[in-house]
Design a protein that fits this description.
Radius of gyration: 22 Å
CATH superfamily of the largest domain: FAD/NAD(P)-binding domain
Structural class: alpha/beta
Largest sheet: 7 strands, mixed
Strand order of the largest sheet: 7-6-15-16-17-14-18
Strand content: 15-25%
Amino acid sequence: MPKHVIVIGSGLAGMSAAAYLSKQNHQVTVVEKNSTYGGRLQQFSSNGFTFDMGPSWYWMPDLFDSFFSDFNYKTENFYTLKRLDPGYRIYYGDHTHLDISENLNKLKNDLENIEHGSSAALEYYIKDAQEKYTLATLKFMHKASLSPLEYLHTDLLTKLGQLNLFKPISKHIREYFKNEKIIHMLEFPSLLLGGKPRDTPALYSLMNYADIVLGTWYPKGGIRSVADGIYNLACDLGVKFNFNSPVEEILVEYGRSSGVKINGEQFLADIVVANADYHHVDQNLLQNGYSNYSHEYWEKRIMSPSSLMFYIGLNKSINDLPHHSLFFDSSFAEHTENIYDEPKWPKKPLFYVSCTSKSDPNTAPKDGDAMFILIPVATGLEDNEATREKYFNHVIDRIEKMVKQSFKNNIVFKKSYAHREFLADYNAYKGNAYGLANTLFQTAFFRPKIKNRYLKNLYYTGQLTVPGPGMPPALVSGKIVANQIKEDLNE
């Protein structure tokens, strides 16, 4: 029997859940606190420049394809993809750089010039990573993870050992390579997963397969095009969206969620799915006694980093700077310690630069560049304008030094974004950018559950629950919740 479902939040997971639930013939309404859809996939334009404000890496194209195919569409029905070559560049402290070529043979030759034997080692490493990727995406990723028993099927048990859950990825990589340049190249995706390499399971070497083999892509019009596509799909399926609708409370009646309160008005529903920040929902939107977790539980979680970001418009084009660049010209270990072990503003941080105008001239005026800079930093830090300005000057100086070009005086637009904006825009716990760190004990059934333990018709989706952070996992998260709702209704 069709139900009325309210989805709180229109991030990718929320829109994914809404689409799948609508496909199940439910009446679905998405309520969003902000003025538009997409969660962190926002975009803004100013002075002729266009910037994606959040995610900027398009990896795992097969999972996007799988999502759209579930609705009998193809990805290209919604946006056009371009494979980047190089996928990205890494700048090192000795003033050298490494381009991660989309031609695997070229990349192997480049690595061989750095470390003898690394070409063959990469073949073995990638083969292992591919097996993990296939197992994870086909066997494990779509599990609701409500109980460890879900993983006790014979065919899954025989494959658990291949996933290297109990070996850190830092150790796993070093079994294949000795050179720190290559090691850091392979450890880099673990930072996107929000964890230290020594605390991230070797399972996540699957991201190296996604990166090196499946490639780095760019959707025409920017990452916002992904949100546009999924929003349009959801609308075509009959999903209704209400914007500027901040939920003040999840209503409870007779041991069930009966809907939500928005601006003092009650909106009733048979089922509620929360795509808003899990901690915010758990601690602020539920009456006492209905939270899944305690304040102490949340305080003990290892959160992914926050980010200090700068959106910069230049009236000149920087020569020989690719779309994506990583600046690893300082200590990898020291920076991660400043995020996790002794949280503080880093002395000399690693950082990332995206220059979308290299692939999409429409994002900047002619002869100009649109640049996005991201510095991973610890959550919960004091965030003020003086600190932001200090780090802005620091990273600009380092970029100029590495690319051997001056451009500080060519900056005609600048905007920053950090902890306080993450809190204001997304209610992000401690101002985090990527949810929970993917440590062993925050993976699969160790993550916050997709179901409320007290209210059987309240569900959760998004980066703080399964399967984890990132755009493809967000789409899968929505599907997991929709499938669980279908299963529960058929009981």
